[in-house]
Amino acid sequence: MTAGSYMYIGPQGIVHGTTITLLNAARMHLNLPADKNLAGVTFVTSGLGGMSGAQAKAAVISGAACIVAEMNEHAAVKRHEQGWLTDISSDIDESIDLMVDAAQQGLPISVGFIGNIVELWERIVERGIKVDLGSDQTSLHNPYQGGYFPADYTFAESTHMMSANPEKFASEIKKYLAQTCQCNQHTL
Question: Which of 5, 64, 127, 179 is a plausible cystine mate for 59, CB 3.0–4.6 Å?
């Protein structure tokens, strides 16, 4: 979006494009007028890595109330310290409450939830909370080498399984991807 060929400049290089994408998703799927921002809109996604970290900032710029799930605590803390996240929590209900409260007040927020996106989606469904927009910015092109982490395992357990038992890791990832699709059916 701003970097030239083979140049990696991190999330700051794609904030503009991510913001435009988020606004246009709301325009297409929520019939948001072109002159309005995302105040009151909830957005749930995952990934706070080098490029996906732009989502949190784009959500705040566009006015949304957002949760970004991230398994790697170091990555989430780093994004918070750098100002890409307004809040950070490892408590699933606190993360959801922060998003819901901000949306009800029409305030922008980006909560970094240290945990698994499937567990977050499942809890959102259990609580009967409507999410306006959902995304996934993890690495689907690389699901078996850290692009995804299975539910019900910690980041450390997943990382160890990935190297010590790649067949089991791949099997767990396949289950995880099916869980992801299942728990997102409420958004259709």
Answer: 64
